[in-house]
Every structure is written in C-alpha cells, then in structure tokens.
C-alpha cells in the first residue's frame, strides 16, 4: 500500500524545488520531463504564502517550480535560484533568460487582442527577438491567427478550474507553432503551452497557487 508523504517532507521538497534543486535547463533527454510536482499537496503549496508556477520543457526533459521574483507594469517575472527566469504579461510569455536559446523579447499586442476575442480574421503579426552568434538581437516574424476556442474544466493539484481553451496558430516561411492558453473568466491563465525557440521547443506551465 502506498502511504502519503509526511507533511513536513512535502513542505521540505517544495522549499528545495523553489530554491533551485529542480533546475532548468538540463541536458536534452529522450524521456518525459521529470515532474517537479511529485509528492506535493495543495495544503503544502498554500502554506508557502506566495504564488507557485510549475513549468516544463518537454523537449529538454526537465521541469521546475518557480516563484514570482519581480514585476514591471503588467509583466511578472518568475524565477528560481539558478538564475533561470520567465516573464509573462497576462499569462503570455514575453521573455526568457538562462535557457540558452532564449526568447529575448516578444511583441504581444496582437496576441493580447486575440485572447480577448478581438483579433482580425486575416491574422496579426508576431515578432520574437533572439540573439544571433554575435549577441545582437534579431527578430523572426510570424503571421498568427486564432485557432479553436472552447470552454472546458481542467484540474490542477486537485483544484478544478472552469476555463476557455484558446489556440493561437503562427506561421512563417521557416516554420510555425501553435500556442495554447487555458484562461479563466477573470483573465487568469491557469495553464499554457507556449513556443520559445526551435532549439528549446515549447514551454508548458501550470499555475499551482495564484
């Protein structure tokens, strides 16, 4: 019979993960990403007294727990002790640092409008900035259009959330990607799958504690 982990052990595991023991990035792995949420409970998460986000890089075979580390206007940055950081505006990824092939910046006006159901049918531009071999920022342009949009219920750490699942499909001559956002009625992005770069692939997120 499997017994639940003691409450103190769970809290210790969470503290270690938030301190950077569950690290990003790791070498690319052929297997699934290790789950940084293992042995955690909602009660232990609530005791932390601050928001907690679970993030995974499936193509890299790694995951981690992040806490907010700063805010600049509408942009919130989440990070862990090993200097990896992810910045979001209204749940939309706008920059990464410490991952290697980082997203240096992203133009989000079209995506924000799409999330609110106000994007044009012909699509909207999305520009993502990356560093080239000489550490200069270069932009890749995409034409994005809204995909399917449907209501559903998701469960995160035993907590159900009624959300709208929103797809964003972006293409360019060099390739494309599909971002997916699970957004609550109050605008909270509880879960997402968002493109970073060809080298890193997709970032998956879950907001464990708001």
From TrEMBL:
Q: Which residues form a coiled coil?
A: none
Alphabetically sorted, this entry's keywords are: Lipoprotein, Signal
Source organism superkingdom: Bacteria
Provide the leader sequence positions.
Answer: 1-30
State if Lipoprotein is listed as a keyword: yes
* Alphabetized Pfam families for the sequence: YjbF (PF11102)
Name of this protein: Group 4 capsule polysaccharide lipoprotein GfcB/YjbF
């Amino acid at each position: 019979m499997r017994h639940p982990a003691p409450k103190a052990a769970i809290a210790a595991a969470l503290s270690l993960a938030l301190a950077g023991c569950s690290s990003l990035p790791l070498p690319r792995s052929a297997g699934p990403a290790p789950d940084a949420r293992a042995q955690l409970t909602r009660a232990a998460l609530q005791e932390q007294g601050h928001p907690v986000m679970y993030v995974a890089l499936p193509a890299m075979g790694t995951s981690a727990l992040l806490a907010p580390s700063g805010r600049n206007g509408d942009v919130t940055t989440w990070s862990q002790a090993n200097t990896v950081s992810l910045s979001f505006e209204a749940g939309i990824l706008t920059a990464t640092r410490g991952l290697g092939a980082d997203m240096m910046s992203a133009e989000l006006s079209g995506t924000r409008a799409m999330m609110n159901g106000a994007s044009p049918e012909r699509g909207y531009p999305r520009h993502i900035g990356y560093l080239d071999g000489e550490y200069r920022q270069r932009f890749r342009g995409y034409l994005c259009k809204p995909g399917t949009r449907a209501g559903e219920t998701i469960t995160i750490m035993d907590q159900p959330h009624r959300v709208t699942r929103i797809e964003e499909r972006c293409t360019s001559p060099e390739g494309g990607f599909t971002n997916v956002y699970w957004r609550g009625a109050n605008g909270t992005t509880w879960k997402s799958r968002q493109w970073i770069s060809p080298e890193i692939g997709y970032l998956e997120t879950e907001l464990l504690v708001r």
